[in-house]
Specification:
This protein is an alpha/beta fold. The chain contains 12 helices and 12 strands. It has helices spanning about 15-30, 55-60, 80-90, 100-110, 155-170, 185-190, 205-210, 235-240, 240-260, 260-275, 275-285, 295-310; strands at about 5-10, 45-50, 70-80, 95-100, 115-120, 130-135, 150, 175-180, 195-200, 215-220, 225-230, 290. Helix 5 (about 155-170) links the parallel strand 7 (about 150) and strand 8 (about 175-180). Helix 7 (about 205-210) crosses helix 11 (about 275-285). The protein is globular, with a radius of gyration of 19 Å. It starts with a strand and ends in a 27-residue tail after the last helix.
Length: about 350
């Protein structure tokens, strides 16, 4: 299969330079982020969490899980999963939340990361991952994407969604022209007509539909439910295992709380991000879900993402992924925080 066409790509930095840039970004960001726990926490009891706007911090805050922490959390915010995963692999952050697709792309690219907590998307979450077109677009079906410019982030949940929809429609990855852009750039390009469609998720979908008047060409409704992960690096798993175990337990409780209190969660998300409440209420569906164990069945399911990316030319080969999914924090195996 030929390599999918991309009309715009960014040159990769040398590995050393990339790591330095990531560390500088994280260090700068930490100067402006508030600590989520008492300042009396010892320096050795600090967990650095990579997050995206409206992600784990908003969820844990809404659920009350940041109250009375026995350690400190420093939050490092990233615009997307890709730079978060780079920082995680470089050791600049200890743990971070990402989708299964960007995790697979990063792992196949050599990132030193392990998924240690997993959750399955809730019912209705499929509509929060969508291929967006302008309201006046002539495109009506996935088949209409053939030969068109589709923007997304390389290796992201957005690209995985398009690939799944293309497969369903009997098309190949090479049947569309891939344009790799950040979400903000894709939003602007769609508005000017420079691209034909944009595949994105979460609040970006909500803003496009509820604020910009765009429409959904297709979404994840009807596809198998996605899995989300929190991934850590080896250093954190060795030095901060007990703290990480407590953190994922709090995530699990917060997920349960959020499914029972969606409007309360949306209110906190709107306040912390500045999103309109109706957009926040729409966006939270991508963060809702139930904790699932990391086991052989889940790993076998993830292989399909790697194989899909290989067929599409997104990755060169499917690696041995067994070391990328660690059941260390499955229920019953967590050490206690003292």
């Amino acid at each position: 299969m030929s390599e999918p066409r991309a009309s715009r790509t960014s040159p990769r930095l040398p590995v050393a330079a990339s790591v330095v840039v990531v560390i500088l970004i994280v260090a700068t960001g930490l100067l402006f982020l508030r600590h989520a726990s008492p300042s009396r926490a010892a320096a050795g009891d600090t967990l650095t969490v990579g997050d995206q706007r409206g992600g784990a911090q908003a969820l844990l805050a809404a659920a009350g899980e940041l109250d009375n922490l026995p350690y400190r959390i420093d939050w490092a915010l990233f615009p997307a999963a890709a730079p978060l995963l780079e920082a995680l692999s470089a050791g600049a952050v200890d743990v971070g939340g990402v989708g299964s697709a960007p995790f697979a792309f990063a792992y196949a690219s050599g990132a030193h990361i392990r998924a240690v907590y997993a959750y399955r998307a809730a019912d209705g979450a499929g509509r929060a991952s969508a291929v967006i077109v302008r309201r006046d677009s002539p495109l009506r079906t996935v088949a209409d994407l053939k030969g068109k410019k589709v923007a997304t982030i390389r290796g992201s949940a957005g690209q995985n969604l398009v690939l799944r929809l293309l497969e369903q429609a009997g098309l190949k990855a090479s049947d569309v022209e891939w344009v790799y852009l950040a979400n903000g750039e894709s939003k602007a390009a769609l508005g000017t007509g420079a691209i034909d469609a944009w595949s994105t998720w979460g609040s970006c979908v909500g803003i496009a539909l509820l604020e910009d008047g765009d429409r959904v060409l297709a979404d994840g409704t009807g596809l198998s439910k996605d899995v989300g992960f929190f991934a850590a690096n080896d250093g954190a798993l060795t030095a901060k295992r007990a703290i990480l175990a407590d953190f994922v337990q709090r995530l699990s409780r917060a997920k349960t709380w959020a499914q029972q209190h969606p409007r309360d969660y949306a209110a906190v998300l709107a306040r912390e991000t500045g999103l309109p409440f109706r957009v926040a209420l729409f966006a939270i569906t991508s963060n809702l879900g139930s904790t699932v164990p990391i086991d052989d069945r889940l790993v076998a399911e993830q292989v399909r993402i790697f194989e899909r990316y290989r067929r599409a030319g997104v990755i060169a080969a499917v690696p041995d992924i067994r070391g990328g999914y660690d059941p260390i924090f499955n229920r019953g195996s967590e050490p206690a925080v003292r």
